[in-house]
Amino acid sequence: MTTIRISPHVDRIQSLSPYINVYDSEPLRSLHKPPSEPSDFYSNIPHIAPSQLTSHADPDVLKWTGSMGYGARHMHDKAPFSLWDEGARKFHFPTPEQRKWIEKTYNLEGYQFKANCCYLETGNPPKPVPLTLGCMPVLFVGINERPNALIPNAGHYANPRIKDPCPHISWPPLSNPKHVHRIGILTALENLVNAKSITFLPSMTVVDLVHDDNRIYNAKSLPGVVAGHSTLYHHDASPFFNEMRDLQRERRIDPARYEIPEIGPLPVDYTNYLKEVPSLITPGVRLTSGRGAAGTRFENLSQATSAGIRLRNVTNGQDMMTVANHGFSFSSEVYHPGEEDGNKIGEVVSRYPELDVAFVKLAPSEAHKLSNRVYFQAEPPVRLVSADEIKQGSWAEVDGMSSGLVSLHCDGVALFRPVRPPGHPRVSFSEWKAFNISQMFGAVNDRMVDGMCGAPIVECETGDVLGFFHLGNGSYARSATLDDLIAEGWAVV
Q: Which whole-number Å values give the CA distances from 210 to 184, 193, 197, 416, in the listed order?
């Protein structure tokens, strides 16, 4: 089958801004190798021939080369050098000769190398835009548009002269701390702060402090080094994640600035893929909730999000489709693509609110049409991975019904204390929820984010499912890790 969206305007969103036009030279087609053989599942579907499930893309074209962590090289990265030192596990600054090549090749007005990403200032970005420069993540920005510094509100609490509360905890550089490390750090900080989350980034650790507990912290009263890593503290009503954005760049690449002449700004994919040949439901298609109950304020409202993936429980053999839980908060009915112009394909039967995931039991007439085999221009999903398996520095993709293909760079991991009602017993650190934190390399605004929710985030080349798109601010994305689903025996079919 074709893996192109039938609505071409959605795929065009990512080519509107010249500063993020990554795949304009590969318009509207998948770049992924199809599986070599169909699974038994597909061979048992009489109305779908194996040839219909084969991508029409050039099988020799690869988006990435090298290890899928730090040091991976994007297909448009033509630098005759690498800035990644695998032995030292770090990037190095360009040599004078390398700087000359960069300045000449990209006609730069300025550049900045910061936090394992380089920012190149130009009034004429290359076409197509590479995602790496010498294997280092790269963002092209307008002239004098320097990136915002990620500085928490209340960074003055940190004091590097205070003794590290857990010097015995360590992990390799430019990697995520494992579960045991994260729990150990929270335990070491327990008597020093009242934390609601902790975020581990390549250049620092940020502890988000509870803001409304009347607790007072004096300047330079908290350790500035925790587990050997520079540590800062955020103390504000707005969580630190909300500060992790570059508004200047977001305005530069906002698709709402550019109109698609045929239909205006910000299209979504309304295609009914059940009416196409073959008739399939795949990750990233448009789903709509039923309307709210009569007599409620939701009775005339419905919500639209993107489809997730097909999972099977290895213990009981049940098959389910994942969706964004919040997209079906006032109705359990699931339609594709909409209630008025589509089919009711199933109902929500179970929910994981803290993961923003819900399970849909598809109607018998539609269940056999749910396919993980293709995912438009993104990597098809292969397996679920836990938080400890997510590799910092790896590249992933999400292809939502309102965005088309967006690339994500896995920058770190965060732990959040689950929300509980007043008087609830203390939640142990082992019950805090882990979230993957990724930098977004794509044109996304707040309106588009709503439609992307529920779509799987899949690591390039491996097919590992890192989570489902949940929250994005245009600069960074946050998605719950899937440890709970894996523990219950769910796996990609």
A: 20, 9, 9, 12
CB distance 230 to 224 below 8 Å:
yes
C-beta of residue 12 within 8 angstroms of C-beta of residue 22:
no
Q: With a cut of 90, say whether residue 351 has pLDDT above it.
A: yes
Burial class (CB in 10 A: 0-12, 13-18, 19+), 95: exposed
Q: What are the pLDDT digits (tens) for 106-118?
A: 999 999 988 789 9
CA 365 – CA 367 distance, rounded (Å): 6
Whole-angstrom Cα distance, residue 20 to residue 252? Answer: 10
Q: What's the burial of 477, exposed, middle or buried (CB within 10 Å: 0-12/13-18/19+)?
A: buried
- For the record, the structure tokens of 468 come out as 């489902």
Q: Which residue has the higher pLDDT, 32 or 476?
A: 476
Q: Which long-range contacts (CB under 8 A, 24 or more apart) does 206-215 make?
A: 206/152, 206/231, 206/232, 206/233, 206/234, 206/240, 207/231, 207/232, 207/233, 207/234, 208/152, 208/234, 208/239, 208/240, 209/154, 209/233, 209/234, 209/235, 211/235, 211/236, 211/237, 212/237
Token pair belonging to 271: 């295609």
Integer Cα distance of 459 and 452 in angstroms: 17
Residue 445 has pLDDT above 90, yes or no: no
Both tokens of 43, joined, read: 């061979």
Sheet holding 136-141, edge to edge: 110-114, 117-121, 136-141, 132-133
Paired residues of 434 in beta bridges: 415
Q: Which residues pair with 406 in a beta bridge?
A: 398
CA distance 332 to 349: 8
pLDDT of residue 264: 59
CA 330 – CA 163 distance, rounded (Å): 50
Q: How far is Cα 489 from Cα 493, in angstroms, rounded to an integer? A: 12
- The secondary element (H helix, E strand) that includes residue 466 is strand 464-468
φ/ψ of residue 389, rounded to 5: -90, -10
Mention every residue, 6+ apart, whose C-beta is less than 8 A from residue 422: none
SS percent in the chain: helix, strand, coil, step 5: 20, 30, 55
φ, ψ of residue 366 to 5 degrees: the values are -115, -15
| Structure token digits, residue 155 | 């960074």
